[in-house]
Amino acid sequence: MSLERAERFAFEGRLAAADAALLRTRPRRDPDGARVAWLRAYLGAARGRFATAERSSRALLKTSLDPELHARVAATLGSVLRQTSRHAEAREVEAAALARRPRGDARTHLLIGLVADAVGLGDLRGVDRALRRVGSRPSGGWRVRVRLAWVRCERELLAGRPAGAATHARRALVAAERAGARRHVAKSLLFLGASLREAGDAAAARPVLRRSRAIARRVGATPIERVAGDLLGQAAERR
Which of 26, 114, 156, 212 has the fewest CB atoms nearer than 10 Å to its CB? Predict the structure, then answer.
C-alpha cells in the first residue's frame, strides 16, 4: 500500500510525504525495485535534481520493464531533457517508448510529451500533429487534463496568442486545484503568469507569479520556483 501512497503523494506535489512512504514500501510490492527507482527519479526531477534523475531513468530504461512502467520512466526522462533544453533528444526517447505500445494513461502522457517536445523545437506544425495524436478528449485522470492544458497553453504562446494561452492555463489551474496537486497548481500559475505577461498585463501577472513561486518553494519544486522568480525579475527590470 505504501507504494501506491508514495505515487499519489508524488503526483500531488507532497514530495516529503512521498519520500516517507517509499521508506515504508515492502519489497514484495516491487520485487525488482524498478517502480521505487522510477518514483525516486520522478521526485528528483520535481526537485530539480536533473542529473540524478537522468542517470536513474536511463539505467532503468536499459532493464526489462513492462511497457507501462517503461513509458512512465521515458516520460520522466523526457521531462528532464526538456527542462535541460534537449527537446530533440526527449522526442527520441518518448517516440521509442511509444513503439513498445503502452496503454492507457502511460501512452497519453508520452503523446503529451511529444507535443511539448515540438513546442520546445519551435515546430508549430509538429505541435498540431502531436495534438491530433492525443485527441480532443483523451481518457485519463486529472494529470492528463492538466498536462494537456499546459501544452495547449504553450501552443498558443508559440502561435503568438497569449489570451488563448491564458484560457488554457486557467483550465489547468482549476483541474490542479480540484485534485489538490500543489506542484501542478504552482506550474499552472506559472503558465498563467507567463501568458498574462506576454499579453502585456504585467500588473495581473506579478501576483500570479508570486503565488506560483511561493507554492513551489513550499513543496520543494525548485525548477518552478526558479522560473517564476526569473519572470518576476524580468518584469521588475522593465519597470
Answer: 26
CB neighbour burial string for 68-100, b if at least 16 within 10 angstroms, e if fewer: ebbbbbbbbbbbbbbbeebbeebbebbeebbeb
Give the contacts of 142 (CB within 8 A, at least 6 positions apart). Answer: 175, 176, 178, 179, 181
In sequence order, the 6+-apart residues with CB closer than 8 A to the CB of 177 are: 185
Distance, in Å, from the CA atom of 61 to the CA atom of 166, rounded to the nearest integer, reads 36
Tell me how many degrees the CA angle 122-226-213 measures, rounded to the nearest 5. 110
In sequence order, what are the residues at sequence separation of 6 or more whose Cβ sits closer than 8 angstroms to the Cβ of residue 234?
A: none
Spell out the per-residue pLDDT of the chain, length 239, in tens.
Answer: 588 899 999 999 999 999 999 988 765 666 568 999 999 999 999 999 999 999 999 999 999 889 999 999 999 999 999 999 999 999 999 999 999 999 999 999 999 999 999 999 999 999 999 999 998 778 889 999 999 999 999 999 999 999 999 999 999 999 999 999 999 999 999 999 999 999 999 999 999 999 999 999 999 999 999 999 999 998 655 55
CB 22 within 8 A of CB 190: no
C-alpha span between 145 and 124 (Å, rounded) = 21
pTM: predicted TM-score of the whole model, two decimal places: 0.93
Cα-Cα-Cα-Cα dihedral sign, residues 50, 56, 62, 68: negative
C-alpha cell belonging to residue 92:
527520441
Q: Say how far apart CA 22 and CA 87 lie, in whole Å.
A: 30
